[in-house]
Amino acid sequence: MRTLIRSLVPLGLVLLAGGCASLPSGDQVLSTSGEWLSRTGEVIGAQRERLSERFARGDDTAPAEREAEVEALLEQPWIDPVTRYLEAHAEDPERADALVRLSRERDRRCAAIAEEYAERPANRETLERYRRGYLFSCPAEVNAFHARVRDAEAAARAAAPPLREAGEPAGEVPAQSEAADARQEAAVARRAASDCYLYFTIRNLQQARQACAGPAEKGDARAQHHMGRLAELAGEDEQALAWFRRAADGGDEQAAARLEALAGAADGDEAEVAP
What we know:
By secondary structure, the chain is an all-alpha fold. It is built from 13 helices and no strands.
């Protein structure tokens, strides 16, 4: 165990000195360092689980400890613990500064991985590897790579239509691929809702409106409330009321309270102008 710890310390120093942008992707590590990982995989896995569990708690942590959490997240090389922290605290305004820093870092890491995969073959095998490693944190980037795969497949079919048995539908998608596509779609939707809450909390109103529109249209009551607040801030009173009604019907208590307040204000205005 002492030998293992001594071997991990230099690696940690290299990672901290080099930064995450120079790190290989997860599948590269698995393909080039299998022997090392077989000896240390349990240690790394345990550390990752501790980070995930710790940063998913909704406890009221003191500012100094919060800062320590953020620094630990920035120093460790994985993306998923950063995403879990962001989603766990997306609606906590006291952590707004941390959310800004970590969302930028998450986006930077996803962009670095996307650049790496841009050089890889656009096929189903690469897509599945991308999904296994990064779908949770980088669904938009995985989705963009999937679009490249579909384009490549369409071009291949146009160039040389595949032979098929009589009666077999052309372009049939295997059930396994359909299930993977459904998981990808769900991940994209989850990330969109999370970004909606996050941008609203940190008061990035332009991005909040863009991020909240999709989830709100699909019935997310919290996103509908945020769309109502954003419309209200923009002076779009009718749209605000419409969103608040939809959110209240979906069970959002803040939207219901806002509706009641606006209705009371409207009644007061009518009383003032009555003869």
